[in-house]
């Protein structure tokens, strides 16, 4: 099985031309629908739909309460290593970036980093590494999992694309969640942004979320880096990918992230910026298209914006984030993967959610 044939079936679709022809009447009728089709989702990303953001927000809020209640999951990333062989033009961990200090945590540092995060009350953590293929890096990751699994009830990974067998190995060592962005769904743009390294294999990465589902991951999170390519197209194909997985893997919770990419190494700047208003429209369209879809919002966004987006469909927030390797135990650690906009502590995020009448969820899963 693969999402690729479905993706290719839209090769003849002129997204801009389609969206130009969407009328206000069409958008109004879509909002009244109980179940949306793929092109309905695309219509909600059109300029015509911007006139209906308030109506979309009301329905998105109602659907989110219906399926998730007033709960927001909290988690934080733990960066194990920034060593990477890929040459992604937009990423500070790129092999081409000579301005950062490469580092990989020792077993003692991993344990200390985990304890520092766990002391904030967080029980859900996302482990990240750069892409260094081979047996030794996977063994290093397994060692890290065995060190920290006593500190957390949910372990997710955001690493290079693996085989089903490798994902299965990680689940045996406590991993229950997988985050893997396609980065950009447009294949030609993908090739131009990944000039070298194993990540250049578009199909291997595209099918990685499905391999994670087949390895019995409890939660799989997909997404595109908004800003790398025409955002309505990228959001449309992210939604189709999420729906494809949700329809086929009923035991796996499917979610999306909507990170807006910022500047990268060697002066890289996003070529297709996404405004705050666009981001609101994206969240609302996702919620109306897939009412049971998890939606993650990262600290790339400002505190004020994250606070205002909580009622519109968001189900998961990162908190207390430091994107540098060893950032939770070493005040001198720098060279993060990206610039954080919301620097609040986990306790500050917790208080914000309580003030809004939401329940911050530190743990929703316990292995027995």
TrEMBL record:
SUPFAM superfamilies: Radical SAM enzymes. GO terms for molecular function: 4 iron, 4 sulfur cluster binding; catalytic activity; iron ion binding. Pfam families: BATS (PF06968), Radical_SAM (PF04055). Keywords: 4Fe-4S, Iron, Iron-sulfur, Metal-binding, S-adenosyl-L-methionine. Its cofactor is [4Fe-4S] cluster. SMART domains: BATS. GO terms for biological process: thiamine biosynthetic process. InterPro entries: Aldolase_TIM, BATS_dom, rSAM, rSAM_sf, ThiH, ThiH/NoCL/HydG-like. Residues 70-300 form the Radical SAM core domain. Gene3D superfamilies: Aldolase class I. PANTHER family: 2-IMINOACETATE SYNTHASE (PTHR43583:SF1). This is 2-iminoacetate synthase ThiH. The gene is thiH.
């Amino acid at each position: 099985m693969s999402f690729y044939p479905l993706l290719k079936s839209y090769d003849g679709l002129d997204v801009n031309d389609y969206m130009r022809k969407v009328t206000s009447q069409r958008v109004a009728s879509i909002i009244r629908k109980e179940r949306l089709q793929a092109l309905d989702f695309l219509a909600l990303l059109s300029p015509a739909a911007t006139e209906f953001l308030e109506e979309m927000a009301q329905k998105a809020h109602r659907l989110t309460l219906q399926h998730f209640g007033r709960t927001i999951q909290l988690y934080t990333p733990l960066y194990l290593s920034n060593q990477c062989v890929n040459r992604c033009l937009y990423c500070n961990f790129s092999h081409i970036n000579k301005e950062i200090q490469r580092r990989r945590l020792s077993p003692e540092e991993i344990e200390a980093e985990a304890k520092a995060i766990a002391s904030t009350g967080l029980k859900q953590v996302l482990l990240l590494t750069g892409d260094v293929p081979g047996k030794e890096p996977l063994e290093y990751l397994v060692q890290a999992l065995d060190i920290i699994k006593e500190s957390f009830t949910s372990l997710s990974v955001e690493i290079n694309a693996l085989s089903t067998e490798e994902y299965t190995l990680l689940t045996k060592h406590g991993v229950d969640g997988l985050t893997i962005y396609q980065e950009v769904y447009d294949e030609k743009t993908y090739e131009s942004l990944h000039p070298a390294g194993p990540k250049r294999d578009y199909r291997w990465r595209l099918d990685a979320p499905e391999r994670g589902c087949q390895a019995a991951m409890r939660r799989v999170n997909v997404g595109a880096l908004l800003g790398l390519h025409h955002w309505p197209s990228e959001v449309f194909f992210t939604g189709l990918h999420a729906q494809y997985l949700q329809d086929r893997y009923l035991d796996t919770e499917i979610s999306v992230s909507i990170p807006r990419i910022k500047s990268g190494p060697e002066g890289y700047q996003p070529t297709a910026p996404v405004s705050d208003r666009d981001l609101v429209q994206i969240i609302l369209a996702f919620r109306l298209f897939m009412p049971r879809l998890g939606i993650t919002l990262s600290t790339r966004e400002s505190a004020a914006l994250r606070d205002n987006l909580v009622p519109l469909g968001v189900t998961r927030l990162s908190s207390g984030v430091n994107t540098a390797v060893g950032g939770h135990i070493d005040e001198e650690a720098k060279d993060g993967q990206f610039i954080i906009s919301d620097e609040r502590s986990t306790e500050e995020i917790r208080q914000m959610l309580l003030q809004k009448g939401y329940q911050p969820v530190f743990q929703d899963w316990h292995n027995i």
